Amino acid sequence: MTIHPLRPSDPPALRPEQERPDTTAAYDSTWAEQSEEPPPPEGLDRIMGQDGKIYVVLAVVLLIWIGVVALLFRTDRRIERLERRIDRSISEDE
Predict the structure, then answer these.
(1) What CA–CA distance (Å, rounded) separates 44 from 24?
(2) What was the pLDDT predicted at 30?
(3) Is this structure's pTM higher than 0.90?
(4) Quick one: which H or E segment has residue 82?
């Protein structure tokens, strides 16, 4: 197999049906068509963003988490009290 180096004066070889693509036009139109303002929200962002509904949902989720944590601490304290009561009753029986 022989490799022939290209000389700088040789144009790149294109197939007959292939035209040389103008790559700069595609990028120019992409950047030129973008507007200054952001695109409008879609889907869930549009629904939840209206009138601050997303903040209501976040507040409800936060309240639920606070409730779960409070319930866990309360249950833990009750279990500790029951364990102490059982330990005292066992020690009195001996």
Answers:
(1) 37
(2) 56
(3) no
(4) helix 53-93
